[in-house]
Design brief:
single chain, about 240 residues, alpha/beta, TIM Barrel, ten-stranded mixed sheet, binds iron/sulfur cluster
Length: about 240
């Protein structure tokens, strides 16, 4: 585990909700736009002492569930009601599905569980689905991620996730082509066209957006031909200089 901290959710339908983020290290993909540092296995986890104040302390890995529970209880009693949910993120958190199988039932007694995933490890999701309240699933586009081979794994994952509360997110930039949007729409439609699609303009750390306003609207129009709910939501935390 790399970090535990409190911040706002910057992406997707829950944008602006205050969450506790538990960030796991390691990923099974290698996206071109990735801004997550994976320089080996970290021996320590950065844990925020006061929610949202960035006063991190270092705790040796592996962090024990009791440590996380006592932090959540302290935050709940000191700052009651501020957190909407608990975001399980990474990296790819489903790589830790055995740990999560043990942890999620207990964490969920404190807060609803929000999973942020790259959307390919459907077998791991199957084991955890009953313990998750929200699934934020990526479909990786070749134009932005560099991955060409993930369409079928994404379809299988979405099929599994559709038994829960899922939305799909795609990161787009000026290089994103129409056929990619058709392919995403076709995958979602084959499972359930009412599953929301979030079109997320690629945003750099300095809050520069890598797609023109017109192209963004064109992508929304293309996806809306087949899908019921298509929303454009940027990475808002970048504009607010939040973690
Ligand atoms: S799935 Fe996410 S964490 Fe993994 S390489 Fe891609 S952007 Fe980075």
């Amino acid at each position: 585990m790399i970090e535990i901290f409190s911040s706002i959710q910057g992406e997707g339908p829950l944008v602006g909700a205050r969450q506790i983020f538990i960030r796991f290290q390691g990923c099974n993909l290698d996206c071109e736009y990735c801004d997550t540092e994976f320089s080996g296995i970290s021996g320590t986890c950065q844990v925020e002492n006061t929610p949202g104040r960035r006063d991190f302390m270092e705790i040796p890995n592996p962090v024990h569930l009791d440590t996380v529970i006592s932090l959540l209880e302290r935050w709940q009693s000191g700052w009651p009601g501020i957190h909407h949910s608990l975001s399980i993120t990474g990296g790819e958190p489903l790589l830790q599905h055995e740990v999560l199988l043990d942890w999620l039932p207990q964490l969920r007694t404190r807060h609803p569980i929000y999973l942020e995933t790259n959307g390919v490890l459907h077998g791991a999701l199957f084991q955890l689905l009953q313990h998750i309240d929200y699934i934020s699933m990526d479909i990786k586009l070749p134009s932005t991620s560099g991955h060409l081979e993930l369409w079928e794994p994404h379809r299988l994952f979405l099929k599994e996730a559709s038994h829960g509360n899922v939305f799909v997110k795609i990161v787009v930039n000026e290089a994103t082509e129409d056929w990619e949007i058709h392919r995403v729409s076709e995958i979602i439609t084959s499972v359930n066209p009412a599953i929301p699609l979030i079109v997320q303009p690629m945003t750099s750390r300095d809050a520069t957006v890598a797609i023109s306003p017109i192209r963004t609207l064109e992508i929304q129009e293309l996806a809306s031909v087949q899908l019921t709910s298509v929303r454009v939501i940027p990475q808002t935390h970048r504009f607010l200089n939040q973690l």
